[in-house]
Amino acid sequence: MIRERFSEHIRNYLSDDSWMILEDHYDPEENLKYESLFCLSNGYLGTRGAYEERAAKSIPCTYINGVFDKSETFMRELANLPDWLGIKLYVEKELIGIETCRVLEFSRALDMKHALLVKRFVLEDKKGRRTEVEGIRMVSRANVHRMGIRLFVTPLNYSGIIEVENIIDGSVINFCDAPRFKVKHTRLLTNCPLTDKGAYVEVATRDRKLCVGTGSLIEAYAGGRPVMKNRSFGAFGETAVEFQDFDAEEGKAVEVVKYASVYTEREVPDCHGDSCTERASDRSELHCRVRDEIKGFAADGFETEMSRHIEVYARMWDEANIEIRGDFDLDRAVRFTLFHLMSAGSEHDDRVNVGAKLLSGEEYGGHAFWDTELFMLPFFACVFPDTARNLENYRYRLLDAARANAAKNGYRGAQYPWESADDGTEQCPDWTIEPDGTCYRCYVAVYEHHVTAAVAYGIYNYVKITGDRCFLREKGAEILIETARFWASRCEYNREMDRYEIRRVTGPDEWHESVDNNLYTNYLARWNLGYVLELLREFKEDGTGLYEDLKARLNIRDEELESWSHVKEKMYLPKGKENGLLEQFEGYFDLKEVTIEAYDENDWPIRPEILRTVPKTQTQIIKQADVVMLLHLLGEEFDEETKRKNYTYYEKRTLHGSSLSPSIYSVMGLHVGDETKAYRYLRRAAFIDLTDLQKNTREGIHAANAGGVWQTVVFGFAGVSFSEDGVVDIRPHMPKEWEGLSFKLHHRGSKMEITVLPDNSVTVTVLEGGPVSVRINGEAMVLKGSGPADEAMVPEGSGQAAGGPS
Ligand code: BGC
C-alpha cells in the first residue's frame, strides 16, 4: 500500500492504491513531468506540482482560468500568476531542500480521491543533520479561493532553531525555461505584509490591467500550541518573504501550516478603479478580501477546510468514477485522466472554457480548441451537466466575436476561432519560432475551419444527452444558424462539376495543410446546414413563434434557407471510385502510398523510414484520426462495410502524432469489430501522460485525450449511445482482461448506474429521475425510476430482462 510510506500524520488521510499515483524516487529530470501529473486544480485555478522549496528544473505555474494576457507574445495566454507555494526551511542557514541535502527517503503521491498532493522526505544536510519533512497540499474545491500546505517537520538527530520563509513569488514568468519565449505577463502593484503578519502580493496583467491579489500566512504548532516566533517581513522586488522561526526538538514533529488565497478583480469588482496602478498605502478591496479569506481559513483550520474539500470530491467522484475490475493499472490510469479533466471544469463560471492542457501547463496558452466540444463535452454532459452548460454558454457569449471573425475573413455568419481565450478573437499564432530563431508563418487558423462545425455539433450532442431544449431554443439555435450561414458562405460553387466545394482547408490531419475538399470538413459543414434546416422546420411547426422570431432577429430570408438546402444537396464528398474508400481530401489517393509496417515494443507505429527523405505532405501518412473521426461522429451516414474498410485503410496510415487520435481509433476499432486493437489503443490513451508517451507531458496534461479515454470506455467498451428520441442504447464489448465495469451517467434529468460483466450482461439502475428508455443488448424497455432504484439486468443475446422494467 502506497499510504504505508507515510507516517500517521498523513497516512490516515490517504486512499487505497487504486486512487494513488506515486513518485517513488527523486530524479530532477522527471520534475517537469511530475509537475504536470501532480497539478492540483479546482475549476477556478490550477497550480503545478512544483516543490515548495523550488528545484533547479521547474516550471512553477499558477493559472486562474480566464486570466489571459498577451504582452510581447503572439497571443493571449494564461498568465503565470504569483507563485503561492514557497516555503523554505533552514537549520543554521542550511536549506532543508530536496536539492541541497542528501535524499535518504523520498515519496510523493497524488491522492486522486481526496485531491491531495502528499510527500515524505528524509533529508540529510552537509553537517549530517537529518530532517523528516512530510506534507499535504490542497487547492480547495469547497472554497476555490483557499489553498493550503501543511507540513510536519521532525528533526531526527538534532534539536535547534528552524527558520521558515513564507514566500509569494511575483517574479514568475511564462516559458521560463525557453529563452526565446520568456514573457512576463504581470506587473507588480503591491508587495507588503498581509496584516501585521503574512505576505501579500498584488499584480496586474500588463495589457488589460486585471488585478490579482495573492496572500499567505504561515503558522507553526507543537502539541496544538502556536510556536512561530520572530516574524519579520521583507519585500524583495516582486517577491514577498515573511521570516519566522520555531524551536524544534529532536524526534518531535512541528506542524507548519501555510494558508493562502487568491482573488482577482473579476470577483471583487470594486477593487480599484483607475487608482489600482497608483495606490499608495491604503489597502485595496482586493487586499481586504484576500486578508479576510485567509483569516477565515486560519480560524476554520486546515483540517476543516480539507474535510470540506474531500467531501466535495466525494460527491464529484460519486458522479465521475469509472471502475474497471480485474485490470488494476488501467483502472487507475483511466481514473487519473478523469481526475484532471473533472478538476479543471468549472460548474460556476461560464466565461471560461477548458484549455487543451487544462490548467496544468503552458502549452497552447490555455486556449480552447475543438477538443472541448468533440472530446471533453460528452464527459461533462453525461457526468457534470452544469459544467457542460457553462461550456455551451461560453460559446454563446462569444458569438458576436465569432461573427466579427467571419466578417474579418470575408464570410457571413459566425466563424469560431481555431484557438479561443477570453474574448473570442482568434488566438492561434500567425508565426512560430524554431529553436534556431527561424520564424515560420503558421497557417493553422487560416485554414483549419472545422472548429466551427465542432461548436455546432457540440450543441446537438449536448442537447441530445441532457435534453436541455431551453438552451437550444434560447441560445443554441442562434449559434447553429450563424454557423450554417458561415458554411454556406464558405462553400464555393463549381459550375463545371455542378457541386459545392470547400477549397484551401485543413482537416483534423494537420500534416496535409491546405487541401481541397477535406471530406471531414465537407461532411460536417453539410451536417450543420442540414441540422439547422431540420430544426427550423421543427420550430416552424411547433407554433411557438420561435421560428418567426429567429427569422426576424437574424434577418433570415426564405431564399437564404433555400440556398442552404441547395449547398447541402450539392456538397462534394470525395470517394474512391469502386473500392468503398472515402478519400480524406481531393487527391489524397494520388499521394505516395506509404503505410505503417513496423511497431515498437509498446506496439506503437514506427515512423516509416521513407519520411526521412520524403516530406509527409507528399505521402498518405497522416497525423491523426480524420476520416475515422468522421465515421465516429456521423456514423449513421455510413454502412458497416464502409466503416470497416476505411478504418483498416486509415489505421495503416495514421501515426497518432496527436493525442486526439488513439481514443478515436479505440472507439471505432470496437465499432468495426477489432477488439484487440481497441484495447491497445485505450491503454495508449490512458497512459499517455502517466508514462509520458508523447514526451511532452511536461507541457501539461492532454485534456482532449482525457475526454477521449472516457468516451472509449463508455461509448466504446460499454457501447453506450443516445438516440435523438431519448433512448439510451447499451451494447457492450468487454475486453477479455476485464472482470467488470461500472459507471454512472446523467441523461435528460435522470441518473443511472450501469454495470457490465465479462459476458457483456448489463445491469442498469435508475438512481434519480426516470422513466428512462433503454435498449440493452438489443432489448428495449422503460425503467420507471423515481423512488427506490429501478433496475434491469439483461444478459447479452438472451433478450431476457430481470428486475423491474415497466
Ligand atoms: C492537434 C489538434 C488539437 C490541438 C490541441 C494539435 O496537435 O492536431 O487537433 O486541437 O493539438 O490539442
From TrEMBL:
The keyword Glycosyltransferase applies. The keyword Transferase applies. GO terms for molecular function: carbohydrate binding; glycosyltransferase activity; hydrolase activity, hydrolyzing O-glycosyl compounds. Keywords: Glycosyltransferase, Transferase. Pfam families: Glyco_hydro_65C (PF03633), Glyco_hydro_65m (PF03632), Glyco_hydro_65N (PF03636). Residues 335-711 form the Glycoside hydrolase family 65 central catalytic domain. Substrate binds at residues 370-371, 623-624. Residues 23-266 form the Glycoside hydrolase family 65 N-terminal domain. Residues 725-783 form the Glycoside hydrolase family 65 C-terminal domain. Residues 787-806 are annotated as: Disordered. The active site is at 510 (proton donor). It comes from the Bacteria. GO terms for biological process: carbohydrate metabolic process. Belongs to the glycosyl hydrolase 65 family. PANTHER family: GLYCOSYL HYDROLASE-RELATED, PROTEIN-GLUCOSYLGALACTOSYLHYDROXYLYSINE GLUCOSIDASE. This is Kojibiose phosphorylase. It comes from Hungatella effluvii.
